[in-house]
Amino acid sequence: MPGADGAGSVTARLVRGLAPVPWVIVVVGAVVTNALPGGGGGAASRAALVVLMSAFFAVLFARLLLAAALRRARRLPLVFLAGAIAVWAAGAASIGAGQTVTAVTFPAPGEILCVASYLGTGAFVLLDVPRRTTSLAGWLEATVMCGATICLAAFVLVTPLADVFARDGLPLLVATLFPLINLVLASLVIGQTVLRTRARTGQTGMLVAGFLGLAVADSTFLLSLSGDSYTSSLAVAALWGVSFALIVESACRPTKHVMTGDAEHLNGAVLTGAATLAVVALAFDPPGFVGWLIKVPAIVTLVATGARLIGALREARGAAEAMRLSLTDELTGLPNRRSIMQAVDDALQSGSPVAVVLIDLDGFKDINDSLGHAVGDDVLVALAHRMRASLDPKVFVARLGGDEFALLIPSNDELRLFEIAQQSRLVLRDALRVDTIDLAIEASVGIAVREAADTSSTELLRRADIAMYEAKQTRAGVLLFNSTQDGLSHLRLRRGEALRLAITEGQLIVWYQPQVDARTRQVVAMEALVRWWHPTEGLLPPITFLPDARRSGLMPALTEAVMDRVLLDMKAWYNAGFTFRVAMNWAPPELVGGQLLPRLFTALAAADLPPDSLQIEVTEDSFLADPERARSVLHELRAHGVQVSIDDYGTGFSSLAYLRDLPVQELKMDRSFVAPVASDERSRMIVQTTSQMARALGLRFVAEGVEDATAVAELLPLGVDVLQGYHIARPMPADAVAPWVREWTATSMAVAGIPPLA
User: Fold this and answer.
1) Parent domain of 224
2) Is the pLDDT at 297 greater than 80, yes or no?
3) 413 and 360 in a common domain
4) Same-domain pairing of 561 and 630
5) Is the dihedral of CA 478, 483, 489, 491 positive or negative?
6) CA distance 604 to 564
7) How far, CA to CA in Å, does 543 sit from each of 288, 387, 489, 547?
8) Measured between alpha carbons, how far is 389 from 400 in angstroms, rounded to an integer?
9) Which residues is 443 bridged to in the sheet?
10) Which of 327, 376, 399, 690 could form a disulfide with 368 if both were Cys (CB 3.0 to 4.6 A apart)?
11) Crossing angle, helix 2-17 and helix 43-70, to 10 degrees?
């Protein structure tokens, strides 16, 4: 509310405006009382001091109440402190009310009010910190600090007081109680900083200084007592005023937030120093009541120090175990990535020869997908134990994560490194019995040898990773890194990033190649073929960027972008009256992954197209990686009316079983059999028998790669249903499809070499 905000602003200004007033009163009091007749001990000086003291405490009291009204979260502790100031002022006033201060016998009744005021002061110190759960170690450290502080302060302040003070019993108890309480409060604030419940700031320092100042002032005042009566001291009065002003100034300032997190524990030197101080205090062994004021906190300090040291030993053991676990792979028990990188860094710093061998298991994902991750974990554990048991003990074997292992070998002998790499591959290849299945695990291995310029493990592992990747891509098994591989790796990274940008910015376009019915000569389908309109390199065919898309993990995004473009083109052609199918190619990972299917079905329904106008072309490889999943996906496609074609038939593992069991509508013969059909009898026989099989199974048979009229003449008698190739038409942009189809339909096909119907 505006009114509340205005009132708060006024209160804040009052709190700040009153800040210098107590300090001014202290200075004025010192000057005035010293300048009046009789100096600090004269009647006029005492009267002036009483007036100034009343004004001083009134200002402190008012400022605390204003701060309490301003700071709602700290209202209660500030009210307690304001009450303590008022009670202390009342006690001090009652001591000197109506008589000279030297006539008052110590301890006077007003001392009861002064002692009672510490209840409010203690409540302020305890309540003016946030509630927070603190560890046992933190409490022990706080106890050590508080105990040591009380020991030292009691030894310095209270012991001289007891030696000088001539009386025992209640007078001595009261005499020592004031400085002792102030020391306890100062120690309590220090303990709160150790526990991280109070910020370590100048504001906290002011609070501690205020309590210590009161302790010194009380001790000095009591030491100056003449006989049993009070004496007046201008210096002590000024020190009291400064101390109270510091405490109130600290209380009225806004508290700073204490950062949460792990506490900063005291170091061993601080604990040792505190324990030493306690031992010295016990050795001094002051007699009587004051002796117990020192002995008790000294004993508490020693006990807390011992308990904290025992805890520190346990923490050290726990830290050592945590460090060991942080360097160990949880699954296999081998050293992990952090461990081998640390070992490589140590070897590089020592200048000794070293090489890193990176091992990546081939096809391990299939084990996880088909047998489950639990079985996959068992395989990794078994292989890890195998390698550790079979390789030279000098070889550092680690698991980097997933299906990657690494070897650190103290050698730069390339022949020796190749031998160890091949040995590791043979160890992995030995049949492993898992879930009634004998598995022979193949691996791709990359080797990187230390170079003179190497300074970090990161670079050495990067080179080994590049060599391993090349070994996997080329199926070489084992490769040693060379700079050519590094250049290719950087080129692929740049190409992958450019391709990522091309997908998001719409640089990918789709061209289409017609398919015509071999008998009726009508256009029956268009195959969608992606192109990349590169900003600087022009139009790029798919062979130049699809491998990079696969390596960069961009195939799902690329496939989805092509799918969106194809459906838009299909909708335009459908609205224009064209009814031909459009075929899209899906790679095996995108097919069996399943993430694109819901997106496809939703987009197809949104376009309001006949489902059978879309055809998905898949290769035989799709059924080898995960047959059950591929079968499920194809059935789902057919359930939604989408047609399925087997592309590049004859180049993979051509099994009659999946042709019988799977819901496919078309076989597409690979161009490697179609192109030489006129000159190669074996190719001709393969095409003919495949055509007969397709007809028997009720499948369309498409010949891809029809390049000339001779091929057409040879293919027609073999029973081919659909023709596709450069002899019919080259791939064309989407906006050229409709004009081409109209022209093709209206013009005689004789010029293309396709004879008319009989």
Assistant:
1) 2-310
2) no
3) yes
4) yes
5) negative
6) 9
7) 98, 39, 18, 7
8) 18
9) 361
10) 376
11) 150
Asked if 80 contacts 120 with a C-beta cutoff of 8 angstroms, the reply is: yes
Does residue 516 share a domain with residue 429?
no
Is 495 domain-assigned? no
The pLDDT > 90 percentage for the chain reads 20
* One domain for residues 426 and 545: no
Are 423 and 390 in contact by the 8 Å Cβ rule? The answer is yes
Secondary structure element (H or E) that encloses residue 429, with its range: helix 414-429
CA 267 to chain centre: 30
Question: What's the mean pLDDT in 99-127?
Answer: 68
Residue with tokens 């190739």: 725
**Residue with tokens 């050592």, as numbered in its chain:** 320
Q: Is residue 501 part of a domain?
A: no
Q: Which residue has the higher pLDDT, 167 or 665?
A: 665
Retrieve residue 557's tokens: 């995004």
Residues in the chain: 758
Task: Tell me if residue 259 falls in helix, strand or coil.
Answer: coil
Residue 321: inside a domain: no
- d(C-alpha 297, C-alpha 151), whole Å: 6
Q: Number of structural domains, the chain? A: 3
Give me the CATH number covering residue 450.
Answer: 3.30.70.270
pTM exceeds 0.85:
no
What would the pLDDT profile of 361-406 be if each residue is shown by its tens digit?
988 887 877 778 888 888 899 999 998 888 888 899 999 888 899 9
Asked if residue 506 belongs to a domain, the reply is no
Determine contact, residues 703/726, Cβ cutoff 8 Å: no
Choose the final residue of a domain: 465, 481, 497.
481
Cis peptide before 37 (omega within 30 of 0): no
> What is d(CA 44, CA 232) in angstroms, rounded to the nearest whole number?
13
Same domain, 64 and 212: yes
Q: Which helix (H) or strand (E) holds 709?
A: helix 709-715
Report residue 689 as tokens. Answer: 């028998």
SS3 of residue 42 by DSSP:
coil
Please report the pLDDT score of residue 195 as a whole number.
65
Residue 157, both tokens: 């302040």
Task: Tell me the sheet residues that pair with 510.
Answer: 530
The answer to whether residue 445 scores a pLDDT higher than 60 is: yes
- Specify the higher pLDDT residue, 686 or 433: 686
Q: Is 397 left (phi over 0), alpha (psi -120 to 50) or beta?
A: beta
Which of 131 and 32 is assigned the larger pLDDT? 32
Residue 758 to residue 747: CA distance in whole angstroms: 18
For residues 245-274, give the mean pLDDT.
Answer: 69
The DSSP-derived string for 93-120 is HHHHTTS-GGGSBSSPTHHHHHHHHHHH
Q: Tell me the DSSP string of 324-369.
A: HHHTB-TTT-SB-HHHHHHHHHHHHHHT---EEEEEEETTHHHHHH
Mean pLDDT, rounded, of the chain: 79
Report the C-alpha gap between 658 and 40 in whole angstroms.
113
Which tokens sit at 446?
Answer: 């990359």
- Residue 522 and residue 438 share a domain: no
Task: Among 432, 459, 481, give the residue marking a domain's end.
Answer: 481
Shared-domain flag, residues 532 and 442: no
DSSP 46-100: HHHHHHHHHHHHHHHHHHHHHHHHH-GGGHHHHHHHHHHHHHHHHHHHHHHTTS-
Same domain membership, residue 389 and residue 533: no
